[in-house]
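Predict structure. Chain length: 173.
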Amino acid sequence: MYFVSIVIGLILVISSLFMMRREFNKAVNTQAQMIEQSKVYKDADLFQLLENLQLSIDEMNTAFYDIAHDLEGKYSLHEKEITDLRKTMNQLQKYLSEKQIQMGNAVEENIKVMTQIKEQKKDIETTMEISEEKTDRRSEIIRLRKSGIPIAQIAKDLDMGVGEVQLLLRLKQ
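Prediction complete.
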């Protein structure tokens, strides 16, 4: 956008210079014709023609400076717009960076929570296995005791302590 504005401005300046050159050449040609015709004119008429020529040149200069002033104004306007766009882009990049950091932190927290949940699940599964194992052992101990086997023999067969066998038998009751 900035480049396009500069190119358009340069085109306008160059075309203005060519138009001014053409007008100047016309004025010079006209002046040359006037000089040739001046031989016919009186001195007062010559001075009037020179004043008119000077007014034409002044008008061309004024037009040129007006064009240059307009181009400077447009350049300043585009420069301000570019500055505003850069500020907006920097703010947007900063905002996006902050959001990426926040999302990264949220992902890390989710990973930690998921890890904790998996660990708790393993603990629960282990506890359930131990509970099932104890239930199976207790059922086995009760079955063996009902068949009349002494507590010491049950403890020896199941590779357990006598106190543990007695505890499991009491829990049944």
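Summary: The radius of gyration is 52 Å.
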